[in-house]
Specification:
Elements: H1 3-16, H2 27-38, E1 46-49, E2 61-64, E3 87-90, H3 97-101, H4 104-113, E4 116-119, E5 123-129, E6 135-142, H5 147-154, H6 157-177
Parallel strand pairs: 3-4
Antiparallel strand pairs: 1-2, 2-3, 4-5, 5-6
């Protein structure tokens, strides 16, 4: 199954409970998606959700390479490691990725970690930093242009995967290979 199809199915299942919290309830689906795509890269990239505060706040997740773990089976990276491939800032599907990308919180993450993937589960925006350390957009991908449109897309995960899956997974691979 295409990673996008799996991702959309997982999001839809969580939402269908009626008990989901807009941001955090969907973390596992996002982590699974990133790990599925990251597993096929060289070097592999692993997503870890809920990082410790390293002085810039608490990112929602980080993207780590295998050399950052004691053993491949370790669930957590070695102590003190900054994620080699950047961090995640996640908002709920109604969130405005462009507005979040301009926030002071994301600016702190860009200064500390270099790369930040901002997402609301439907829009993805990779930010890097300019020579002065300020956030600069690098590449974006949208699965849908609104929350309502996104849930319509998610209601047909196989169709979405057929239409968008390859391009979306290629985008995520570029994000996770950026340095």
């Amino acid at each position: 199954m295409n990673p996008l199809e799996t991702y959309l199915r997982e999001l839809r299942e969580v939402r269908s409970t009626g008990a989901a919290v807009a941001e955090t309830s969907f973390y596992p689906a996002l982590s699974n998606l990133l790990n599925e795509v990251g597993r096929k890269l060289k070097p592999k990239v692993r997503c870890v959700i809920n990082l410790a505060n390293r002085g810039a706040g608490i990112p929602d997740g980080g993207l780590f390479t295998p050399d950052q773990f004691q053993r491949a089976s370790d669930a957590a990276p070695k102590a003190g490691q900054l994620p080699a491939r950047g961090v995640l800032e996640v908002k709920g599907p109604a969130g405005d990725v462009a507005r979040v990308a301009r926030s002071e919180q994301v600016a702190r993450y860009v200064r500390e970690y270099g790369l930040v993937l901002v997402t609301n589960y439907r829009d993805f925006l990779l930010l890097g930093r300019d020579p002065q350390g300020k956030p600069v957009p690098m590449e974006a991908f949208a699965l849908a242009d609104s929350e309502a449109a996104f849930w319509r897309v998610a209601s047909h995960p196989q169709k979405a995967a057929k239409e968008l899956g390859e391009r979306f997974c290629e985008y995520l691979a570029r994000v996770m290979l950026a340095s």
